[in-house]
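The instructor's notes for this session suggest beginning with a concrete chain rather than abstract definitions. Hand out the sequence below and ask the class to guess, before any prediction is shown, which regions might be ordered.
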Amino acid sequence: MSRIGIYPGTFDPITNGHIDIISRAIKVVDKLVIGVAVNAGKGPLFNLDQRVNLVEHEIAHLAEGDLERIKVKPFEGLLTDLAVDCGATLIVRGLRAVSDFEYEFQMTGMNRRLNPDIETVFLTASEKHQFISSRLVKEIVSMGGDITHFVTPNVRQMLLDKFS
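After discussion, reveal the predicted structure:
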């Protein structure tokens, strides 16, 4: 039986921190589904298709064996429903700071109540990525700041195009 994990997020846009978690998560699961959430409540800058395409483009550099075990899937609704649909028993979440833990702890409890067969695993962000968030990246670029260290050149250009 293969271990399938889901790494969910809005990925608006995908950052170097997300890519770091993806490359580490694939080491602990046999297959990884990157669930790109609709999440209209967050008012995404990029539409769902753009975010899915960005994620697919940005993970293309992963080792061929790893890339073959990753699927990018858009979703709307409950994460636990997506997990059941994909046969996943593991949710992968990245933690940057203690403040992330409180929210993630609540979500884990709710997901566990919805489906006790699904476990959540937390991966802490690498030191150089601990402060990166999509929200801050968008804020910095909107004010003309340099985001070179936070996203790939492709994502940087897409953001610059959006804000020009």
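Then share the key points. The beta strands are 4-9, 31-37, 70-75, 90-95, 119-124. The chain has a mean pLDDT of 93.
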